[in-house]
Amino acid sequence: MSFLTDWLIKVLKQFFIDGILWNLGGLFDSVNSQIGSIASRVGATPAAFNPGVFSLIRNLSETVILPIAGTVLAFVATWELIHLIIERNNLHEIDTWIFFKWCFKTMIAVLILANTFGIVMGIFDLSQHVINNSAGFVSGSTAVTPDMLAQLEEQLWEMEVGPLMGLWMQSFVIQILVVVLNIIVFVIVYGRMVEIYLLTSLAPLPMATLTNRETSSVGQNYLKSLLAVAFQGFLMLVCVAIYAVLVQGIAVSGNPIGSIWGLIGYTVLLCFTLFKTGSVAKSIFNAA
Q: Quick check: 13 and 157 in contact, CB under 8 A?
């Protein structure tokens, strides 16, 4: 009778251990693929992320927004010329050099407006270079290896059937949380890119105000916002990398149950930090 009991316990242990390792193996695979794919998604420039949408945004900006920006630039330049003239003692003293200064500033403003998309894409090319260089280091240092699962399996065989069943149910819950995490990452990544497209579509308007002292704050805040949303991708990569390093502890800890509950906390923490990357990036670049 004891032989039958031992055989049944062994079968149940094998069932629950296989289920736990399968669930956690899928989790680790998801983490590894997340690290590998997030860099390509957050590091892509607007043109590379979706060429069709980018072409649409660029056409709208150049055909609809750019003429309005030209009108804004003409108004700003005219207002500045009037201000320069009346600034010199109410037209009693007029120096000819102010006209050369005005012509030079207007020429610079026209050049900036004409090359708006080049400037915007240059910012995202810079952020893409930083993210791509970081991704190689991050993915190489956070990979979860099969040896970790083998070490975990040894610890699981020392547990009783009851705790193993509870651990199996918890690992199943974590699988669901990882699916939710993937959805959240998808929403954040694509939401960030939609924000980039929206900012890019109106780029000529704030760029038309850069050369005027009184209105330049509009263009400066716009550039700060572009830098913030561009480097938000780097912060997202850092968040996922930290999460992957924490996940590695699940296979090397001496307390599998505690590690799995810790993993649930890590997953919730990752979701929270991913949502916070936008505000953190804006605070770093002092963007409004």
A: yes
Whether 94 is covered by a domain: the verdict is no
Calculate the alpha carbon distances from 275 to 186, 194, 272 in Å. 12, 15, 5
What values do phi and psi take at 94, rounded to 5? -125, 120
Q: d(Cα 13, Cα 155) in Å, to the nearest integer?
A: 12
CA atoms within 13 A on the CB side of 63: 6
Neighbouring residues of 173: CB distance < 8 A, sequence distance ≥ 6: 264
Residue 252 pLDDT: 52
Global confidence as pTM? 0.75
DSSP string, 175-242: HHHHHHHHHHHHHHHHHHHHHHHHHHHTTHHHHTTTTSTTTHHHHHHHHHHHHHHHHHHHHHHHHHHH
Query: CA dist 190 to 50, 196, 267, Å?
Result: 11, 10, 20
Rg (CA), the chain: 28
Q: How many CA atoms lie within 13 A of 62 on its CB side?
A: 11
Domain boundaries, position 270: 2-65+115-284
Helices (H) and strands (E) in the chain, counts: 12, 0
Domains contained in the chain, number: 1
Is 180 contained in some domain? yes
User: Is 70 within the bounds of a domain?
Assistant: no
Maximum mean pLDDT: which of 135-144, 146-155, 217-226, 255-264: 217-226
Confidence of residue 85 (pLDDT cuts 50, 70, 90): confident
Q: Which residues contact 250 (CB under 8 A, 6 or more apart)?
A: 24, 148, 152, 256, 259, 260, 262, 263
